[in-house]
Design a protein that fits this description.
Helix content is 29%, strand content 14%. By secondary structure, the protein is of the alpha+beta class.
């Protein structure tokens, strides 16, 4: 289950389902002028399971199915459709129950359950259509900036780290400076030192032309989400889709490929997204 694939609509569903579950333990009905304890929905399993828990189960089906990489189907129908139908049924049952109570009053559990059921059904139906509810619930993580190749923290050559031979700040060998006095100890006393003969200046060797530096790419990996479901094609240029990018899920763009993007899915598959219009950057 990928938590980053949840949308704000899924967050509303989870919150409404929690409120609906809590409401099932409150007073279902109340009696005026009577000191008897008012029953809750769990005093009648038909009300608790047939009304309250149907809505909770419907919300769980919607959220869990949308969080899966591939949608699940039962009898040719998407599991989300069963969840939406369950939430609408719960709201419909609460509405007619609170209208036709007879000689009793609605308790806190029934009133709170009706409000939660209406919010639950509204989020289930309007979640895939309202842009505010389709937005991701969790923001996209920032991609880490890779360090230069082969350079690790604490190696010579980095600022503030004493370098070895050949790096700035290292103790370099001195040429032409004062030598150790002990070097002339083996010569006889009074021997004349032979003056060094002047040598012709050496011609500098032609250096190989440095290869032209390749221009650094300005592309930096980033997270994005698609507004509608779009196919992801193979990198070899074939038109066979290898995956489908779903709305509400964050994907990582790793490379620019012409007008498209090379994207990586949550399970590690990579492909080319040819249609990049309307994508949301993280």
């Amino acid at each position: 289950m990928n938590i980053r694939s949840l949308t704000r609509g899924d967050g509303v569903l989870i919150g409404a389902a929690v409120v609906l579950f809590i409401a099932s333990f409150l007073d279902y009905i109340s009696y005026k002028g009577l000191s008897a304890d008012a029953p809750s929905a769990w005093d009648s399993l038909g009300n608790a399971i047939g009304t309250y828990m149907v809505g909770v189960i419907g919300a769980a089906l919607i959220v869990l199915t949308r969080a899966l990489p591939q949608p699940r189907k039962v009898l040719g129908l998407d599991v989300v459709q069963f969840g939406v139908a369950a939430t609408v049924f719960t709201a419909w049952s609460f509405f007619w129950t609170i209208i036709d109570l007879g000689g009793v009053d609605a308790g806190a559990g029934l009133i709170l359950g009706l409000i939660a059921a209406l919010v639950l059904a509204g989020a289930a139906v309007a979640g895939p259509m309202v842009p505010a509810l389709k937005a991701p619930l969790v923001g996209a993580p920032k991609p880490q900036t890779p360090s230069p190749y082969g350079m690790q923290h604490g190696q010579p050559g980095q600022p503030g780290v004493p370098g070895g031979y050949g790096y700035p700040g290292a103790q370099q060998p001195q040429y032409g400076g004062p030598q150790d006095p002990s070097q002339g100890a083996g010569q006889p006393f009074g021997a004349h030192a032979v003056a060094p003969q002047p040598q012709a200046p050496q011609q500098p060797e032609p250096q190989a032309a440095a290869p032209a530096a390749q221009p650094a790419s300005d592309f930096a990996p980033f997270w994005f989400a698609v507004p509608v479901a779009r196919p992801l094609y193979a990198e070899d240029g074939s038109q066979a889709p290898i995956a489908e990018l779903a709305p509400g899920t964050w994907y990582l763009a790793v490379e620019q490929r012409g007008p498209g993007l090379v994207a990586q899915t949550q399970d590690g598959r990579r492909g080319v997204l040819q249609d990049t219009t309307g994508i949301q950057r993280g």
